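#lab-general

N.A. 3:47 PM
ok so I finally got the sequence cleaned up, no stray characters, all 263 residues accounted for. can someone with queue access submit it? mine expired

B.Y. 3:52 PM
send it over

N.A. 3:53 PM
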Amino acid sequence: MENEVQIKLFFLIGTLGMVFLALGIILMSVIYKARVDRLNRKKSESLLNASLNSEKRERQRIASDLHDGLSGDLSAVKNFIALLNNKEEDYSKKEILQEVSTVLTHALSNVQNISYNLMPPLLESYGLVPTLKSYFDRIKKSNNITIKQHYFSDVIEIPSSEAYEIYRIVQELTTNMIKHGNSQQISISITLDQNTLLFEITDDGAAFDFNEKLQSSLGMGLKNISSRIKHIDAKLLQQSVSIGNKFQIILNSDNYVKSSNNR
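B.Y. 4:20 PM
back already:
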């Protein structure tokens, strides 16, 4: 009888040992997987940050080359054409020179617009709000569209890296609204609630599901928006509206400062 109890006790202890061993193996597997996932996330975030920073530097370089190089060359050629036109007496030749001057004017304007879109010069010097105002002024001039803007302040002191990403997100969204949604009216507002900045962008164009398009789109526009949102640790929400689209960008920080020039 005593031997039978000992055998049962031995099997019980063995069974418990095997259970604990199995649980230990499962726990170690879970911990290992969590660690690998964490390392992969860090690696992915590192690659994303490096990619976006590299893109920003390349945009700055190309914008500078266009502004200081090609733009200057076109301006010089335009001045030479103007001098030739002033000295030329043959009317037919003057007409040709004038046409060349007009083409150069358009080319110079296009180069300046491309340079501005690549890296808006106002962003580093004056901040996000003046840059957005300048951007929308350009949009209104080149498109038959109404744009309503509301900013809680003309000065929003956020890191330039975050301001740059927000500007690119707004640019991508509005470009998509105009190009693909045929929007006639776009509204943007920036409000501050304690340490949370809320950006709202709405339009009256063709409605689309951002997440659905993100999965099926072959273009880089929506993918860039998603990457930039992750890069600055923000949230992008799409609200349901009866007409058009409404997007919210939520950015948290303790460093936002509201100037005395409030609206």
